[in-house]
Amino acid sequence: MHNYFNKKIKVGIVGGTGYTGVELLRILIQHPNVDLTVITSRKESGLYVSDLYPNLRNHISLKFSSLDNPDLMNCDVVFFATPHGVAMSQARDLLKSGVKIIDLAADFRIKDIDVFEKWYKIEHSCPDILKTSEYGLVELNRSNIVKSNVIGNPGCYPTTVILGLIPLLDQSIPLIDVDDIVADCKSGVSGSGKKLEASGLFSESSDNFKAYSVSGHRHHPEIVSQIEKISGKKVNLTFVPHLVPMIRGMFSTIYVKILPHALDIDFQELFVKRYGSEPFIDIMPYGSLPETRSVRSSNNLRIAIYRPGNKDRLIILVTQDNLVKGAAGQAVQNMNLIFNIKETIGLESIAILP
Amino acid sequence: MHNYFNKKIKVGIVGGTGYTGVELLRILIQHPNVDLTVITSRKESGLYVSDLYPNLRNHISLKFSSLDNPDLMNCDVVFFATPHGVAMSQARDLLKSGVKIIDLAADFRIKDIDVFEKWYKIEHSCPDILKTSEYGLVELNRSNIVKSNVIGNPGCYPTTVILGLIPLLDQSIPLIDVDDIVADCKSGVSGSGKKLEASGLFSESSDNFKAYSVSGHRHHPEIVSQIEKISGKKVNLTFVPHLVPMIRGMFSTIYVKILPHALDIDFQELFVKRYGSEPFIDIMPYGSLPETRSVRSSNNLRIAIYRPGNKDRLIILVTQDNLVKGAAGQAVQNMNLIFNIKETIGLESIAILP
Amino acid sequence: MHNYFNKKIKVGIVGGTGYTGVELLRILIQHPNVDLTVITSRKESGLYVSDLYPNLRNHISLKFSSLDNPDLMNCDVVFFATPHGVAMSQARDLLKSGVKIIDLAADFRIKDIDVFEKWYKIEHSCPDILKTSEYGLVELNRSNIVKSNVIGNPGCYPTTVILGLIPLLDQSIPLIDVDDIVADCKSGVSGSGKKLEASGLFSESSDNFKAYSVSGHRHHPEIVSQIEKISGKKVNLTFVPHLVPMIRGMFSTIYVKILPHALDIDFQELFVKRYGSEPFIDIMPYGSLPETRSVRSSNNLRIAIYRPGNKDRLIILVTQDNLVKGAAGQAVQNMNLIFNIKETIGLESIAILP
Amino acid sequence: MHNYFNKKIKVGIVGGTGYTGVELLRILIQHPNVDLTVITSRKESGLYVSDLYPNLRNHISLKFSSLDNPDLMNCDVVFFATPHGVAMSQARDLLKSGVKIIDLAADFRIKDIDVFEKWYKIEHSCPDILKTSEYGLVELNRSNIVKSNVIGNPGCYPTTVILGLIPLLDQSIPLIDVDDIVADCKSGVSGSGKKLEASGLFSESSDNFKAYSVSGHRHHPEIVSQIEKISGKKVNLTFVPHLVPMIRGMFSTIYVKILPHALDIDFQELFVKRYGSEPFIDIMPYGSLPETRSVRSSNNLRIAIYRPGNKDRLIILVTQDNLVKGAAGQAVQNMNLIFNIKETIGLESIAILP
User: Fold this and answer.
1) Which residue in chain C has the smallest CA separation from D205?
2) Domain Semialdehyde dehydrogenase NAD-binding: where (chains A, B, C, D) (predicted)?
3) Which candidate from B238, B255, B292 shows the least CB-CB separation from A238?
4) What ranges in B30-64 are assigned the alpha helix state H?
């Protein structure tokens, strides 16, 4: 393993025009160990990056280049902020050239190819690479990520739900009834990206609240596969995503039933112990009310535990910025790990409030 | 019972300065059978109503009067849009004068005085009147409301959760496990009224999402008392309210577990049958996604049922405008019933969209 | 002139899928003198109207039909809620069939064909009809509208700016320097319609404010042509539109310089006199602060006049709901006039607040 | 002058509970040359700062202390993020102890005491200190600020309007008619602070737009005094502030009339030249449309110039984050100057978008 502490990591981004793309740019431009060398875009090739994203004016001089830009092969790592299916199509060539891959889409999130193909309606083109890839949820999988060349960066909802459940499941026997888990999740509108769909218009989504994908959302199998792996059991998860009229922010309310053998456990303490040394996980004091704005633009994820009446139901509240810890920030956290630099570098800025 | 179809109902409002107050005014001013004669306010006595609420300019010439305005005694009905405790303090005198009462606060919502006093931290001053009062959820209790002189208008959250559960519970045996009900509820900011608290400021609640009162909310015992009455069983309800950065709108996502004996039931049909003739309940086609904006400013409440994978979990989505069906509109619906005029009069306007 | 007070007006809408379309529908469905018989849409032909606009569920049973629906010819009046250029292409046939036309686009707003073609980049296909058409600003042009068969419904910005200036200009000599008029105008996002453009996305336009079309906006020549007609002089208008992160609402701040001969005029009184009997224009008391929400969803337009320090500058604040008085409401106001029914019918509902 | 490049500046904040206070904290905590030693609050004395502002959790361990905390006297500089009148009451003692003062309120913004007392309704308690203080608009007054011990940090509106006019006024003869300047300004809601007033509630200010203080706003004399000083002439400024439903951001649209002798000037070039080397002023290419979000949370101020039809009117668009360049960021920029460290330190972070 090389130590990049004293030299720059050469970074490329494929598909830099969406919201995870611009957020990656914002973080990487300010990252002291990064040398951003290439950003591709199918549609915007030739355009100055700062002409598309006015917040980057005077901060970046690169233009978007086309997808086949050979400079990608000279990078140390390439981020894919693309639709599903793009990373897998370029992975083999990049790996051959010694380039590491961090995919912010779903190509390397789900190990079971049948499940992947059922939910994403595309054939997986590199099952062998998928096998060697790692799920980039650092707080779950840090030791494997460090050694990996291909990272499947977690989905935004899965990040909150899995991190909210880990302490209850990574036990010899789960502490909760895995047949009875409800995750009621809420996301800001940026979660659906910059797609031109009527539902994303201000006049359609402002001053409004709704559920969506209630019959089934692609993040469902991703969550299930991870929590089944952690708990070693089949789980029954009910997961309903909702859309909140705010730009950024994700809030998951998780409802579980404590098993009889676990009724005497101090769950607050359990969570504090499990995550105590994690730089980006904040277990709030009992009775706290996390808010999405408290982590806006930061890589922090906050958790509060409630056990009303000290009975057998536990409520776990989890909040993050969907574009940072739920996407670009977590991807950079993975990069820092892989390149053996301090995990928090470039990710320490304080949330913007108000 | 008198028929008011051809004469005007003389209406008074106590406490007309909050958001349920102005919404009552908006509806009642436009109600063809209503003669609005008195509006009181402790703080704003002497002020023109339209000076406080600019939308009412040129629509109402009344001033706020003081709480002891004797004209209240000459009304046919008085609405209380006041804090908890006010209606009970004036109820006896009004009833003696033959004035009917519709309380939009909680004084007549909970029959069990111990429960009321525990949650509302005030003594109930007229238990005898409470006994004769009726819970004003029309679709549950219409036949009793018609004959009543005192109505406890339901809370906003209870309206959605109870109406979302009735068809599953008003059976010889409930169709769902009453020990395992989760209601994850979301409200627009107007639900917390016009109180001057930092949490209600635009800069605090815009672009933000959070849960609140997770340890216990006053609407919890109200919901439980009604669904226990309906089902005839003790129920275990987990209820978490959340705050959405929108002015109006409420959305409840209810998670229940179908009992084995009920697995073959067509729940969509069950709901359609139960509510088919209700003018303000809309059971949407299977697969629909209700949105709060679709009922903004209207008295409609919309329900969609989901049963993912046709398994044993049912998800009920319920939406309403918290200030209309969840407060002022429902109160007027009760008034229409009590005065024997068409239930929908004054409540038929179409939701504002976009 | 026929009197429609006792019979229904048969109404058609061409292009009912945009925001002015759905607003027309909302108003016309609730209009007691209207029989809505046909709604066309190029893209949505065959779809139930209520499937596109959930607020209309259970209020309308029509489907969108294709543009060449012959039923249009049997209407008494057809509204065009279409892009510019559609109304003029169908006007001749409709008029031959005795159908009156109210165009919510710009085809009949500007009498000077050269100006029209320069700004709208399309040839005008029926200059003769344009000549006989009337500009549908009721408070300016009521007596001509009554007798007209073709109405060019004003643009949203022009409605506010022209109504804000009329009392100062329709004098033997204008009271203000027509060479020095600034109109700084702000619109909610619905003003740009339901177009699928990135700038209309929630994540792009929420929590943001900007000017647009600063070099020139199509409403500029429309305003200028009317105020030159009123004042009988060439005017120099500086007009800058801005986008506000709200769905509905328009606010224009107009800055003018009082001419020496007019310095002693009581401008508040002047405005009150000019508009005193207008049902939809509210001249607010001196010192008032109009707000867009005070007219949200209503057909009212509010004006407040300021003359700081009683010097030679006058500031006129004008607010309306861009979709109602600025579009669909004003169109229905025109219809009422043309069909000789009370001008306010169907337009009297109170603004929604909060 | 001391050079603090290699040691920490000891910083105190008086009144750290408002929005400019928390923004100061966010910036100063991340500032590599700052040692934050004391934060006072009258109301919150004893509370952990991070309990009031959840974004600061795990970033600061200080508690609020009382106003008379003697540690203030040991600071190198004290920021006042207080209501008007507080800084002047403590200035003398602090200065005696060698502590520099940066006041974010108005105590040291206006040199003319009569004007100050007329607008702020309080007596000025230290006219002698006021005389030696400097107006902290860096781009106007850098050379004097460097040598000063007391800075009056500019108001948010004045920052945009003055910077938008400087290049047109700091000439031997002004290039524009100083008798005819209109500044139509728009601010996000955070500009009015964390005051508990109904008008600041989400339900009152969301989905709404309005003007306020049209008869006169305290920033008017501040702007006028500076631009009269720059131009050497009496000016006639019409200034109307408006409230935008967004948390942060300020946008000023300035309308001026070019004088005959200046009609041939290339104004774009003029602005570029005047501000070319300014690290925080961005003169955008001709035709650009600045947006508030493009500078959200950053210390940048963006200007675009328009001259429609190349005639005699100039429109200047200016945008900034009212809490950063309009308050806390500018204050830190002043601190950097005074302590002789690089002006941009601690202020270089990229705006958050979307």
Assistant:
1) C293
2) 10-148
3) B255
4) 49-52
Q: Which B-chain residues 254-273 have CB contacts (< 8 A) with chain A?
A: 255, 257
Where does D25-85 show beta strands of DSSP type E?
Answer: 34-40, 64-65, 77-80
Whether residue B174 has a cis bond before it, omega within 30° of 0: no
Residue B286, pLDDT above cutoff 60: yes
| Cβ-defined contact of B55 to C295 (cutoff 8 Å) | yes
Task: Residue A257: name the closest of A291, A331, A307 by CA.
Answer: A307
Superfamily of domain A9-154+326-338: NAD(P)-binding Rossmann-like Domain (3.40.50.720)
Give the CA distances from residue A333 to residues A28, A280, A345, in Å, rounded to whole numbers and listed in that order.
11, 10, 8
For residue A339, give how far its alpha carbon lies from the nearest alpha carbon of chain C (Å): 33
A210 and B289 in contact by Cβ < 8 A?
yes
Asked whether the ipTM of the predicted complex exceeds the cut of 0.90, the reply is: yes
- Assess whether C185 carries a catalytic annotation: no
Best probe of the D interface among C207, C257, C289, by most D CBs < 10 A, is: C207
Using CA atoms, how far residue B17 sits from A130, B22, B29, in Å, is 62, 6, 15
Cross-chain residue pair C210–D287, CB shorter than 8 Å: no
**Cis ω before B285 (30° cut-off from 0):** no
pLDDT band at C2 (very low <50, low <70, confident <90, very high): low
Question: CB-based contact (8 Å) between A31 and chain D?
Answer: no
What gap in Å lies between CA C60 and CA C49, rounded to an integer?
A: 7
Instruction: Quote the tokens at residue C203.
Output: 């994540």
For A247, the closest of C19, C207, C247 (CB atoms) is: C207
pTM of the model: 0.97
Q: Hunting for tokens 């270089």 — which residue is that?
A: D348
Evaluate whether B9-154+326-338 and B157-322 have a shared fold.
Answer: no
Nearest CA distance, D247 vs chain A (angstrom): 7
Which CATH number among 3.30.360.10, 1.10.540.10, 3.40.50.300, 3.30.43.10 corresponds to the domain C157-322? 3.30.360.10
Q: Where are the domains positioned within chain A?
A: 9-154+326-338, 157-322
- The answer for residues whose C-beta is within 8 angstroms of residue D195's C-beta and 6 or more apart is none
* Closest C-alpha to D275, from D228, D234, D316: D316
Within 8 A by CB and 6+ apart from D55, the residues are A293, A294, A295, A296, A298, A350, A351, A352, A353, D22, D26
Span A192-250, pLDDT tens digits: 999 999 999 999 999 999 999 999 999 999 999 999 999 999 999 999 999 999 999 99
Mean pLDDT per 10-residue interval, chain D, length 354 residues: 72 95 97 97 94 95 94 97 96 98 98 97 97 98 98 98 98 96 98 93 97 97 98 97 98 98 98 97 97 98 96 97 98 98 97 97
What per-residue confidence (pLDDT) applies to C240?
Answer: 98
Q: Does A100 touch chain D (CB under 8 A)?
A: no
Pairwise CA distance, residues A39 & A41, whole Å: 7
Structure token digits, residue D289? 């449309």
Contact state of A202 with C202 under an 8 Å Cβ cutoff: yes
Residues in CB range of D163: below 8 A, 6 or more apart: D137, D139, D140, D281, D301, D303, D318
Which chain D residues contact residue B198 at CB under 8 A?
Answer: 194, 196
- Taking an 8 Å cut-off on Cβ atoms, the answer to whether D294 and A22 are in contact is no
- A249/B186 Cβ within 8 A: no
| Catalytic residue list of A | 156
The pLDDT value given to residue D201: 97
Interface contact flag, A19 C207, Cβ < 8 Å: no
D287 CB within 8 Å of a chain C CB: yes
Distance CA D209, CA A119 (A): 44
Asked whether A313 and B215 are in contact (CB, 8 A), the reply is no
Write down the H helix ranges in chain B. 19-29, 49-52, 86-96, 113-120, 127-132, 138-145, 156-169, 202-205, 219-231, 267-275, 329-338
